[in-house]
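Quick check before the chapter quiz. The format below is the same one you will see on the exam, so make sure you can read both the input and the output lines.
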Amino acid sequence: MKYNKYVGKPIRFGLGIVVIAVMIAGCQYNTSESNTDNYYTYTDDYNRTVKVPNNPKRIVSISPAITEVIYALGADDKLVGRTDFCNYPPQVDSVESIGGINNFSIEKLLDLEPDLVLIGSMVNENTVNLMTNAGITLVTVREKDNFEALFDNIEKIGLLCGHHDEAINLNDSLRKKVELITSQIDTSASNKPTVYYVVGYGKGGNFTAGGNTFINDIFEICGLSNIAKDIIGWNYSVEALLEADPDYIIIRREDMATFMNTKPYTYLSAVKQGRVIPIESAYIDLQVPRNVDGLVYIYNSINKKER
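Here is the expected output.
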């Protein structure tokens, strides 16, 4: 089964809870200073009140999405640590890795002496609390199930990194690109082209983006109707896919050739008529600024096929 490694997959948190507990007992790590003017209180996405440095100098990101936003804001000079999955942009390879998202090394993280650790959606609340108890200044900025949250998260990360103005400017630029697309959409159209996004397929099951995802919002902004908009989550039956027979299939570029030559997907009209659109997965799988590039790409690709 082809399956998204970032979204929809049941997450197994491999971070050593016992290791963290030992670190808490034997090695309290605290970056706080006596000058409270250098700090402010911030409420994060787990509704935790955190004392955050006004202008952090050493940031560790445990989220590919957050890492990408940090670079987009020009705050990468503050990034001293990342995970193995933080691989965009390419220059992030020069930043020290602390390991995987679910099994990162707490020892490596502490050795980097961060004054701020940023965590996304893939680290559970229990682990967050354990790290907080170890004296680590940690803030969660989680990916959300709606497209508008992208702009909110960019602004949050900008504030936390001391690049709030840059975040506002980035959001303005991204919104203009989106508005250029929406200005061309006929919102009164009743028969919107239908679309299906292949997240997973084959013997292991079929998975797609349901109506409670920001990916569904991207399709709607493009003037498309997601055939899976009525489902919650990611599971979808091949029978439902064949019955709906969407006008367009969107699929990760690396999966396209195999998908188009695998039964029963070969029976789909979109496959027969060449209406399968390959896309770089990170354009819409992670909630990042590149979502807007993905949105523009999808809209333009479909318009070319419609002409």
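If your answer matched, good. Residues 128 and 138 are 8 Å apart (CA to CA).
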